[in-house]
Amino acid sequence: MSTIKKVKTAVVGCGVISEIYLTNMTQAFEILEVVGCCDIIKERMERRAKQFNIRQMTIEEILNDESIELVLNITDPVNHHLVSSQVLNAGKNLYSEKPIDLSIEAARELVQLADKKGVLYGNAPDTFMGEAIQTARFYLDSGLIGDVTSVYAVLNRDAGFLAERFPFTAGPGGGIGLDVGVYYVTALLSILGPVQQAAGFVQTRNPDRTHYFPNKEDFGGKFKLQGENLVTGSFRFESGVFGSLMFNSCSIQNEKPLIVMYGTEGILYMPDPNQFGGEVKVILKGKSEPVTLQPTHAFSQNCRGIGPAELAWSLRKGRKPRTSKEMAFHGLELLLGIYKSCETGTFYQMTSTFRCPNPIPRGYLGENYGSPPEAGLAV
What are the chain's domains? Predict the structure, then answer.
């Protein structure tokens, strides 16, 4: 590690999620050197700068600082395009929170701009590089359940409850699909590859809501859900595997996330893809009860920041990041393609494709996921 030059990094967006990003990026991933942060709300920027002993910077200072090679964009979804386009136009490498953008056309602009500028562009979610999904991929690739024939992903939430705690989830890009379903979609894509065709139904059910937290000053006030809260879809992977999903945030706040992969020799159960760890289970042919599989990979804790770290390693190694812009664009197109199918009453034909990211190397299973497991990101 001592022979590898650290990648100087700046963060744009100092909201709630920035704390875990900055904690891991400053303490766990030695490839990164976080030098500054920026936010339109001065108090938030001051708090994070002081907490992590980094500089308070304007977006102009970040873009004009030639020593900064990587920028992390963790602003609200409505600001992703503005910030990402500024970073890319400045010729800097970029890692952005999900979704990559709010429309297929806008996202395609960013992908093409990154290609034009010749810079790396990675996108969340990065949870697919965690212990659980990498463990699932290892056993699937080894043929444990035979040929995968179909997959199913399901999630329930309460959109009203979440909007009270995290107001951005009531705005554009904060719906159950683009904000949370993208974790499920990315997990599937990272293992099974690109999708060819999709169809489905989408609804924003009961969009007019009332604030009901009595200890808040806006108690009794009205607000509107601007994103989808009910999504069901079916799709066919290029490999021939069939997939389906059901995302419902018209439910109660008692999440029961599930991804099931059906194979010719067994059934594999994956845990919440919004987390890095969790039990992977399997039922094999001739058996009646599932068994828990032995983990094969590291990064079981909250490792947000692994995406920027792996992109930094990709920069130093001269390769594409595993959190590729192509896979992120494909995932967005799949979700918005399902929405388009609902509008038109027709199947949506995917226009994009991507190459599956290489698996993270096995091993480095210690809970101290700083130096040893990080070595795996370099491969």
Answer: 128-292 (3.30.360.10)
